[in-house]
Amino acid sequence: xxxxxQWGNALYSGKKSYGIIKNRRIPLTVGAILMAISxxxxxxxxxxxxxxxxxxxxxxxxxxxxNPPQQPAYNAVxxxxxxxxxxxxxxxxxxxxxxxxxxPNDVELKIxxxxxxxxxxxxxxxxKTSIGPSWGASVSKQALVGLLVFMGMIAVLLMxxxxxxxxxxxxxxxxxHDFLITLGVFAYTHxxxxxxxxxxxxxxxxxxxxDTVVVFDKIRENTRDMFNQSRSKYNELANLSINQTMVxxxxxxxxxxxxxxxxxxxGAALLGTSTLLDISMPLFIGMIVGTFSSIFxxxxxxxxxxxxxxxxxxxxxxxxxxxxxxxxxxxVTLKEDGSFQEITPAVVAAPMVPGxxxxxxxxxxxxxxxx
Length: 371
Hints:
Elements: H1 4-13, H2 25-45, E1 48-49, H3 51-54, E2 56-61, H4 71-79, E3 87-91, E4 95-100, H5 105-118, E5 126-131, H6 133-162, H7 165-189, E6 192-193, H8 195-222, H9 234-271, H10 274-296, H11 298-306, H12 310-329
Parallel strand pairs: 1-6
Antiparallel strand pairs: 2-4, 2-5, 3-4
Helix pairs in contact: 1-9, 2-7, 4-5, 6-7, 6-8, 7-8, 7-10, 7-11, 8-9, 8-10, 9-10
């Protein structure tokens, strides 16, 4: 059984390969189904925006008993004369947050008094924050504009960097995949969306995009002289690129998910800090989904689009013709199922040797002075 380093070397050198592009219909179908389920969840259940987006009043009760019950908060709001739906959440180990729609000052004061009475604290321990509906609408508009500007700039930059719209479109499709699935989780779980959540969403889009660009850059490197050879097709070189960057994607994801998991489960779950939960939840979901999309969605979508171009079709025919001639000459053999024996890719990197950059042999040599 090979070690993790040996497995990575085998993938990078092409000695071991996973047929991701050959079976691209499976991950693309799975991704499309997850996106559809997310859209259905958003349409049916909707999202749960915080008062920063909708406007309203927020009351925070501090210095109560450890893990205070939430039912007294509902009773206090009802005693103040409100029969509407109220949001109650724990803050820390001895705090509570209560959110209602915007109310007149006398009603909000009554709610403060009832909350202080219900939790046996001084009214000074019950803080109040009011957010008008116009300010909430402005925040919502700015969040939407920020997202659209982000996507537009990404599309332009990718087209300028890769000099092709196919990679730009495929990367944006992968970002849309990550965005919809993350929002779908929020829709089904009804977790509140706050400005911190929006920051987390934009962060995971950048994280996923970075991973995708690394794969696409390797594809561009491996296919630079593709049309000058007749051994490997575009799909084969794209599949090689995914395998070469797979270990890097996994390592990057693990090193990113571990600290986010600590923030999510230790900081948010144990300490009960809502802001930590708001930003760590989309990061945790998005990093997992983003790793999947950078490997199984972006490149398969790219090969699906590029495969329709006439240049790729002509080159595939050229490779098939060369392989048929090689079979007739006995240069290659056929597998038991009648398919071609795997041809060595046109671009194969030298295997990496762990620690090759260390030791006395790798140190720079001092030139001897000629006498």
